[in-house]
Design goal:
With 162 residues, the chain is of the alpha+beta class. It starts with 5 loop residues before the first helix and ends with a helix.
């Protein structure tokens, strides 16, 4: 992805404050034309700067208030098939390949502790999964965020080349 310029960063910062603003409102706030804002938003979309809307939906609101992180140890040659099998479990909301002791890190949601136990059993039943270590998330202390990085980028863009 190409680096974002100062205008892109300002636009993204404004959207982090209120993502429901129209192009006209963003244009007025940022001192840009509506056409410029619309073109920039389209460009940011093409560059992959926006995550899918699905990422904004609360799993707790869907009836899954429990969240856990599961470290999965697998038989490496089976990784692609294991990943496909994990993708078939709706409660696995995210999976990352890791370096270190575990091979995969899963974010899993559950209705309650009994449901989490059921999900763990399903993960362990996948051929090639050797072991799971599950950690219950007690609370989100720092939610997923990008604003501090946007502020840093905007400050650097304002300062000019080093």
């Amino acid at each position: 992805m190409q680096p974002l310029d100062a205008t892109d960063l300002r636009l993204l910062l404004a959207l982090t404050e209120d993502s429901t603003r129209t192009a006209v409102a963003l244009a007025a706030e940022l001192g840009l034309s509506r056409n410029t804002v619309q073109a920039r938003l389209a460009g940011l979309e093409r560059k992959g700067a926006f995550l899918p809307f699905e990422r904004r939906i609360s799993t707790a609101a869907l009836g899954y208030p429990l969240m856990a992180f599961v470290h999965v140890h697998v038989h490496q040659p089976s990784l692609a098939r294991i990943t496909a099998d994990l993708a078939g479990l709706p409660e696995v909301t995210e999976a990352h390949g890791l370096t270190g002791d575990a091979d995969l890190l899963l974010r899993v949601v559950a209705a309650d502790a009994e449901d989490l136990f059921r999900i763990n059993k399903q993960i362990l039943a996948i051929e090639g999964v050797e072991r799971c270590d599950t950690n219950l998330a007690m609370g989100e202390l720092i939610p997923l965020r990008a604003a501090p990085l946007l502020h840093r980028g905007a400050a650097a863009a304002k300062a000019g080349p080093a």
